[in-house]
Amino acid sequence: MENYIRIERQDSFAVLTLQRPGVRNALNTGMLEQLAEALSQFDRDPAIRTVILTGAEGNFASGADIAEIAGKTAVDGVQDIRAQYWETVARFRKPLIAAVEGFCLGGGFELAQRCDLIVAANNAVFGQPEIRLGLIPGAGGIQRLATSIGKARAMRLVLTGETITGGEALDWGLVSHIAAPGEALQFAVELAGKLAKGAPLAQQFAKQAVLVALDKPEGFDLERRSFELLLSTEDKAEGIAAFRARRKPEFKGR
């Protein structure tokens, strides 16, 4: 299998780089599988205190791989093994930092939101554009947006599919730190060094306590099931066809 994740160990932390630059690091099944495997490994490694996620060649991740989604039906969605890989990311016990440059959209944005801290470049671009494909986020994006930025702003992002910059994301409370363009990863490395000086078990318990307060299982289940059902709609097929043809979709509500 092609290596979709570049792994670098640096003393007390590891850097995992998403690398499918030809498609702006779009998340395919192989990438998610390799990400889950790497996180499982580092979760068991006492020498690694923090993990940084970033993307290759100026982008974090542009979303899910449209080529994989195009032919999927609702049944395929229910059976999709990628849900297990997303769960592995959610169960990672140690601090997880996202270093975001460029596009951080759709599934890429959902992946960043599963991190505990997000360092974003000023000119990073965040959004959940799934609505333009006749779909919705399916990996917890809606739930986390509603919790972190409230109803009005969450509705704005998921109903319109519009994007915001890293600076706006900081103002909205979506990211924890801001950096100059090209410097997000270095900022995250310095942050990882600070975290390495803390008490590991206390950090893990603190992380879990925050997530328990925020994550409601029933909301995540509803979001996932809704995404699966939408995979079989005519509007989803039209949305993806329009995206590929670079034209405006004509949705029919079917």
UniProtKB/TrEMBL annotation:
CDD domains: crotonase-like (cd06558). Coiled coil: none annotated. It holds the Pfam family ECH_1. One of its GO terms (biological process) is fatty acid beta-oxidation. Transmembrane segments: none annotated. Keywords: Lyase. GO terms for molecular function: enoyl-CoA hydratase activity. It comes from the Bacteria. Its EC number is 4.2.1.17. InterPro entries: ClpP/crotonase-like_dom_sf, Enoyl-CoA_hydra/iso, Enoyl-CoA_hydra_C. Belongs to the enoyl-CoA hydratase/isomerase family. This is Enoyl-CoA hydratase. It comes from Phyllobacterium sophorae.
